[in-house]
Design brief:
By secondary structure, the protein is mostly helical. The protein is built from 10 helices and 2 strands; from the N terminus they run ββαααααααααα. Helix 3 (60-77) packs across helix 4, helix 4 (86-103) runs antiparallel to helix 6 (119-135) and helix 4 (86-103) runs parallel beside helix 7.
Length: 227
């Protein structure tokens, strides 16, 4: 009998287990897993021992980075505006990122701690730099506005996604109120809150998220054309 020169490829549901299969299963699980995703549950979904996943990913962080980068790729696919319409490209990328992170919160929330260095992340950076270059920014202004936009989109979308997952109700793509329940305050102690409590209760997370995007766009416009 000839000696074995390599391990038999592991299978998942009768299919060869590879990175693409694991990523697809990971996202499918993340869609219903709430704010966390476990390797044990992913192994069960794949129909394989969880340790088999580590033959394709060095660690859980490596796996989460791959899942997160896939969300970046999907967000970029939603950008349909022409490069000349730099404002709309930034808006579309931001809105799609919020949608993807909210759909897969266990993955989206990792954006605050993980840098993927993957093709999705690099293409997103290139899109933002190109947009702000077309706006007329250069040097430090270009770098700072890219960083402002990236920080706002990633951190805020991740926070919104986690909050929606913890509520575990409704469509994750629907906006959620910024304040839960009525604002019952003493008008003498908190007169400003009492005066605009109705407007505060009208705030929702998606509108505030996009307001932040518009603020960075307007800042770029002012610096590029201060007149």
């Amino acid at each position: 009998m000839a000696a074995r020169t390599g391990a038999t490829p592991e299978k998942a549901g009768g299919r060869r287990l590879d990175r693409a299969t694991i990523i697809a299963a990971g996202l499918a699980l993340a869609e219903t897993a709430g704010p966390s995703l476990s390797i044990r549950d992913l192994g069960a979904k794949l129909g394989t021992d969880p340790t088999a996943i580590y033959r394709h990913f060095r660690s859980k962080d490596d796996l989460m980075s791959a899942l997160l980068d896939e969300l970046n790729v999907r967000s970029l696919a939603a950008v349909t505006a022409s490069p000349e319409d730099w404002r709309e490209r930034l808006r579309q990328l931001a809105a799609a990122t919020l949608t993807e992170f909210s759909r897969y919160p266990a993955v989206g929330q990792e954006a605050v701690v993980l840098t993927t260095h993957g093709p999705g992340e690099l293409d997103a950076i290139e899109l933002m730099l190109d947009a702000f270059t077309r706006a007329g920014l250069t040097g430090d202004d270009l770098v700072q506005h890219y960083a402002l936009m990236a920080t706002h989109v990633l951190s805020t979308a991740a926070g919104v996604a986690r909050a929606r997952a913890e509520r575990a109700s409704g469509d994750p793509a629907d906006p959620s109120p910024w304040f839960e329940g009525p604002l019952l305050v003493d008008p003498i102690k908190h007169p400003h809150i009492a005066q605009i409590s109705a407007q505060l209760l009208d705030l929702d997370d998606r509108d505030l998220f996009m307001l932040g995007v518009e603020s960075v766009i307007r800042s770029a416009e002012r610096i590029a054309d201060p007149a």
